[in-house]
Amino acid sequence: MDFQQLAADIKRWGNELGFQKVGITDLDLSTERAALQRWLDAGMHGEMEYMARHAELRSRPEQLHEGSVRAISVRMNYLPAEAGFARTLKNPRLGYISRYALGRDYHKLMRKRLKQLGERIKAACAELDYRPFVDSAPIMERPLAVKAGLGWTGKHTLVLDEQGGSWFFLGELLVNLPLPVDQPVAEKCGSCTACITICPTQAIVEPYRVDARRCISYLTIELKSAIPEQFRPLMGNRIYGCDDCQLICPWNRYAQLTDEADFAPRKDLHAPELLELWQWDEATFLQKTEGSPIRRIGFACWQRNLAVALGNAPYDPAIISALKAQRGKVNAMVDEHIDWALQRQHDRAAGVTKQVLRLTRAVEKGLPRDA
Description:
Layout: H1 3-16, E1 21-26, H2 33-41, H3 49-53, H4 55-58, E2 70-77, H5 85-89, E3 96-97, H6 106-124, E4 130-133, H7 141-147, E5 152-153, E6 159-160, E7 168-175, H8 194-198, E8 204-206, E9 209-210, H9 216-222, E10 238-240, H10 244-247, H11 274-278, H12 282-288, H13 298-312, H14 317-326, H15 332-364
Parallel strand pairs: 3-10
Antiparallel strand pairs: 1-2, 2-7, 4-7, 5-6, 8-9
């Protein structure tokens, strides 16, 4: 078997299946073990106990599929043409959802394509044995992608590519074929610290190190308990995930748009009114998020996130009424966040009243309105 030619064919087949970049690497991740263990020992994984459960296995991908000697790493762009970042983030009455979650869940789509790639390889080489991974099982996707030359690790810990930014999903095929490996690319973040500076909660505690317990993506998706009060005001209107570190990254000026119809934004999730989302009952939530990654957080956490965003919204009697109407309908955790949001709204109402009184007195005294 001419493995050099087969590797070239694999990359071509991957492109034909919708993967924008394909790389090949060996499975040695021994250099990642110490950093992972330090991160876990510091408790920065928060409630993601699954990160610690198979810590040893994470840096040993060869144990995930017997006989594997290589990883075929792929990337698929997900940024939609009508992303509408500014329109949503700058309007506190709208809910911001991380752009990766606006369309259908990527896991099934990418896994199906990876299986198709595996079958094409098997047709050319009957000895192939493979297993596909898409954010599944304890596998370190980003280090494998970096070793396979798909990009470098940015200071926000995401994989960056100079020709495609970071708006892409990763997936892998573990295979038993001794394919020639690709070389990593040079790191090109330089002295830039834009992602560290922009993070609303300062979750990037140092270059290449994120404290998940502070990260809005973790707080709105992975955390199943109450969101710590210190982070609630900083979340703004982000109700599912956060893209700030990607938005500010200079390399994302070169980001490539997706042509996958499944990643197109759903109408109900693209720049939605917070109050409209707040009116959904659990049945509506399940129906509107069918086939979406959002569904996995569950209705209670969805309501929790919305309550925080409503608390951060400008004063509005309609928000206060809506919050009160929902109290006692889900669970105690949601009620806690409703009470916090109500207090925030009442504080703003008091501030509005004081401003009106100040302006009224100024007018009565014949003073300029900005006196």
